[in-house]
Design brief:
YjbR protein, alpha+beta, Aspartate Aminotransferase, domain 1, 22% strand, YjbR-like_sf, 145 residues, six-stranded antiparallel beta sheet, YjbR/MT2646/Rv2570-like
Length: 145
């Protein structure tokens, strides 16, 4: 099982400023990896799954240890985001949960947009309304194709 220390610092260093700008969001160690929450709801969860122990990840990871982040997606955007495959996938729990494999290929502007959208899904409406889209963010149609 992964612990908070198993998440490469390069990913935490990128995610902390993205998540930290969202009102009332806080970081905490999770049962595996690290997560950011608003109240008691998880906005983003980053971890290094063991594909032998968690077989759901085996088809999404390319050999060796890979770090993934799960997050919430507006249901109407889920298929468009995950249909293209790597690095995105649909989690096998929750109706609107997606995952992304992080690595050198990661577009951190897109991750900022996805985390912001996840926050909007999970935060109380009055807090979600206070968050502007990240600068130069691509819309769902642009991500899909």
């Amino acid at each position: 099982m992964s612990g908070p220390g198993d998440v490469p610092s390069e990913f935490l260093d990128r995610l902390r400023p993205i998540c930290g700008r969202l009102p009332e969001t806080y970081e905490e160690p999770a049962w595996i990896g690290v997560r950011w929450r608003i109240r008691a709801r998880t906005v983003a969860h980053v971890y290094t799954p063991d594909p032998d122990r968690h077989r759901v990840y085996a088809r999404h990871l390319s050999g060796g240890a890979s770090t993934v982040m799960t997050f919430r997606v507006p249901f109407e955007d889920l298929l468009g985001l995950t249909a293209g495959g790597f690095p995105f996938f649909r989690a096998e729990w929750g109706g609107n949960v997606a995952g992304v494999v992080l690595g050198d290929h990661t577009d951190w502007s897109e991750i900022a947009e996805l985390v912001t959208d996840s926050y909007r899904e999970m935060a109380p409406k009055f807090l979600a309304a206070r968050v502007a889209p990240p600068p130069q963010a691509a819309g769902p149609a642009e991500r899909a194709g």
